[in-house]
Amino acid sequence: MCATCGCSADGSVTMHVPGQEDNHDHSHEHDHSHSNGKRIVDVEQDILQQNNLLAERNKGYFDAKNILALNLVSSPGSGKTTLLEKTLTDLKGQLEFAVIEGDQQTTNDADRIHATGTKVTQINTGKGCHLDAHMVLHAVQGMKPKNDSVLFIENVGNLVCPAMFDLGEKERVVIISVTEGEDKPLKYPDMFYTSTLCIVNKIDLLPYVPFNIDKVKENALKINRNLQIIEVSCTTGEGLQEWYSWLKSKVLAPETV
Amino acid sequence: MHELSIVMSIIDIAKQQMEGADATIIEEIELEIGDLSGIEPQSFEFAWKEAVKNTPLQFAERKINYVEGLATCLDCMIDFSVKQLYDACPVCGGHFLNIKKGKELKVKSLVVN
């Protein structure tokens, strides 16, 4: 059993650091036999409690080290990794970064991030459809992000499942591209409800697609009136300055308790 | 299919509670699931059937109390029931809501032996 979080590590989640190979397996066998009469146990326990406790633990670690942890969520193909590549390259020398990549399989995304010279860990969730706080805990233990850095956690491309799992992030950023439907916020409301920033990507393609950007904003704001929206194109660079300013404002803002 | 992770968490909680109560059999489990909790009942059912095999919950009777969504409109301060997070206030048509009920996701109780 894992000494820090009590995990039984019985899933098929694996961690990879480009340039080195490590593996970490442990199992836990545990038998009991007792007997007694029939009785009711009042449990009243949140089903996500274990995840939420580990998320709080991650949050404490990030706060103590003044790490800005951002959970990036979107459907597959909306351009999360490209946005990260662009950001890591453009802000190199201005901010310190680390990246956790989540995908079911392959280290392709981590390899792309590694090529920018940024510290990265790939989590392969196997059949899992989302990252959880436990996976992030172990990834962070391995990578040890620097104090005052920005930690991007690129979740598995999926607008449904990751919504329920707090990773301990400071902010959740949902990315949508103009090649998707403008009703996406309504179809996947939980993700838009729990995010603080929405990035609309690929706006250079607006002349070629029937995507009404005002409509998508209207739909997103119906779910979350406080959602901030930034339009960008990673191809032309349009709007990226606004995203960088948002990022820098979050890094500079000291946590007040 | 995050419902599978949810069922796995329920199994963990149930096992812990069963062991804590010095019992070996779970006869009943009572859950509370809000309509806005992000759980799709059909997927949950499918995940449940597969996941509980060979666990103490395999033969347990399962009761689910579904909780309907309830929101307060923060502009006119009235309460109304919601099916979706983007539902509009029936009075002002606004979307500035505080969700009061419907997000529940809990193991309420067990009957053990």
Please explain how this structure is put together.
- The complex is a heterodimer of chains A (257) and B (113).
- Chain A is an alpha/beta fold.
- Chain A has a single domain (49-252), classed as 3-Layer(aba) Sandwich (Rossmann fold).
- Chain A is 30% helix and 20% strand.
- In chain A, helix 3 (108-114) links the parallel strand 4 and strand 5.
- In chain A, helix 1 runs parallel beside helix 4.
- Chain A is globular.
- Chain B is of the alpha+beta class and 113 residues long.
- In chain B, the strands form 2 sheets. Chain B has a 3-stranded mixed beta sheet, covered by helices on one side. In chain B, strands 4-3-5 form a 3-stranded antiparallel beta sheet, with no helix packed on it.
- The chains are: A alpha/beta (257), B alpha+beta (113).
- The interface between A and B is large, with 40 and 35 residues.
- Strand 2 of chain A pairs antiparallel with strand 6 (105-112) of chain B.
Question: How are the SSEs placed, and which strands pair?
Answer:
The complex is a heterodimer of chains A (about 260) and B (about 110).
Chain A: E1 14-16, E2 39-46, H1 49-64, E3 68-74, H2 80-90, E4 97-103, H3 108-114, E5 119-124, H4 133-143, E6 150-154, E7 171-177, H5 184-187, H6 189-193, E8 197-201, H7 213-223, E9 228-231, H8 240-252
Helix pairs in contact in A: 1-4
Chain B: H1 2-20, E1 26-34, H2 41-51, E2 61-67, E3 69-73, E4 79-82, E5 97-101, E6 105-112
Parallel strand pairs in B: 1-2
Antiparallel strand pairs in B: 1-6, 3-4, 3-5
Helix pairs in contact in B: 1-2
Structure classification of chain A: alpha/beta
What's the architecture of chain A in CATH terms?
3-Layer(aba) Sandwich
- Morphology call of chain B: elongated
Any idea of the CATH topology of the domain at 2-68 and 102-112 in chain B? hypothetical protein PF0899 fold
Q: Could you give a short account of the major beta sheet of chain A? A: 8 strands, mixed
The total count of helices of chain A amounts to 8
- How far the N terminus sits from the C terminus of chain B, by CA atoms, comes to 32 Å
> Pair with the most extensive interface?
A-B, 40 and 35 residues
Rg estimate of chain A, integer Å: 20 Å
Q: Report the top-level CATH class of the domain at 2-68 and 102-112 in chain B.
A: Alpha Beta
Reading the helices and strands of chain B in chain order gives HEHEEEEE
**Total tally of structural domains of chain A:** 1
> Which CATH top level class of chain A fits?
Alpha Beta
What about the largest sheet of chain B?
3 strands, mixed
- Give the tally of β-strands of chain B: 6
Biggest sheet, spatial arrangement of strands of chain A: 1-5-4-6-3-7-8-9
Distance between the termini of chain A: 35 Å
